[in-house]
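Tip: read the tokens left to right.
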């Protein structure tokens, strides 16, 4: 999903348990190639609404719901997943991934994004010590910092 030429960098405002929303961008030669948005909320999130809204920073090209462990929508240029996440006063965690350099009309990367979001979302829920609806903590084995496959 990434061109590995150039100098990699990262920009992040993710700074701890009190954070409600935060961006994290992966850069190549100072230009964003993967943009993440981490968000916690007290109410369930309608991710298809965000994916299809022209007024949303999470607008996706041709979004489709996919089957998986978490509620996920994948578009040609990104994906959004959400899950129960008891953390502080929040009850839900939503992860958005956008690929700003990808053609919005090309569906070529959808399968890769689906796989990536499944792995990254699971690792993020574990990293943030989220507890799902059943109250079970996410797997300790996934406590490593989420990384791209």
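Filled-in amino acids:
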């Amino acid at each position: 999903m990434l061109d590995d030429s150039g100098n990699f960098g990262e920009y992040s405002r993710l700074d701890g348990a009190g954070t409600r929303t935060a961006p994290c961008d992966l850069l190549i030669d100072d230009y964003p190639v993967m943009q993440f948005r981490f968000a916690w909320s007290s109410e369930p999130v309608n991710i298809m609404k965000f994916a299809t809204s022209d007024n949303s920073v999470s607008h996706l090209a041709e979004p489709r719901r996919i089957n998986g462990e978490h509620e996920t929508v994948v578009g040609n240029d990104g994906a959004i997943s959400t899950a129960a996440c008891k953390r502080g006063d929040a009850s839900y965690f939503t992860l958005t991934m956008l690929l700003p350099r990808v053609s919005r009309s090309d569906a070529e990367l959808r399968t890769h994004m689906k796989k990536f979001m499944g792995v990254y979302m699971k690792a993020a829920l574990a990293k943030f010590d989220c507890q799902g609806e059943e109250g079970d903590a996410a797997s300790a084995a996934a406590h490593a910092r989420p990384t791209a496959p």
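The chain has a mean pLDDT of 82. The first strand starts at residue 8 and ends at 12.
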